[in-house]
Design goal:
There is one protein chain. The protein has 139 residues and is of the alpha/beta class. The chain has one domain: Nucleotidyltransferase, domain 5. The protein is 35% helix and 32% strand. The chain has 4 helices and 5 strands; from the N terminus they run E-E-E-H-E-H-H-E-H. Strands 3-2-1-4-5 form a 5-stranded mixed β-sheet. The protein is globular.
């Protein structure tokens, strides 16, 4: 059965957290509707990984969640400038561990009708950060 596409543009905020680098890590994603109301908020434990891997896995998790819900137009917000610049092509992905995650993100983005990806300061990504830390705390 084909997933029903939801109308409107949704906001996806994601964050990865790692206590140590590498260290115990978690991911968080929150999706807001076009009125700014929280549609869903999820967190999960990643095990031990680097901060950048946690950031990518959080983005993948958030994109998968958005697609499952039927969100096809997304404004994506991350506080990882590195990941945003890699996705937009400003930076090359040189780290071998990040290359397959980058490829997975590109595949998920290709399933969207439209998207923007934006870097935001950490204080504008508090909810996703809270969820990423919950992922570690509730393992």
């Amino acid at each position: 059965m084909k997933q029903k596409e939801l109308s409107g543009t949704f906001s996806l905020f994601t964050d990865g957290a790692s206590r140590g680098n590498p260290g115990q890590a978690g991911a968080g994603a929150v999706i807001l509707d076009d009125q700014g109301m929280e549609l869903t908020a999820r967190s999960f434990y990643l095990g031990t990984c680097t901060n950048n891997i946690a950031e990518y896995k959080a983005l993948i998790f958030g994109l998968q969640t958005a697609l499952e819900l039927g969100c096809r137009r997304l404004d994506i917000f991350l506080d990882s400038q590195l990941i945003v610049r890699q996705i937009t092509g400003q930076y090359k992905v040189k780290n071998a561990g990040l290359k397959p995650l980058f490829a997975e993100v590109r595949q998920l983005l290709a399933k969207l009708t439209s998207f923007t990806i934006n870097h935001v300061p950490r204080n504008e990504n508090k909810r996703a950060d809270e969820l990423a830390n919950r992922g570690i705390d509730e393992r």
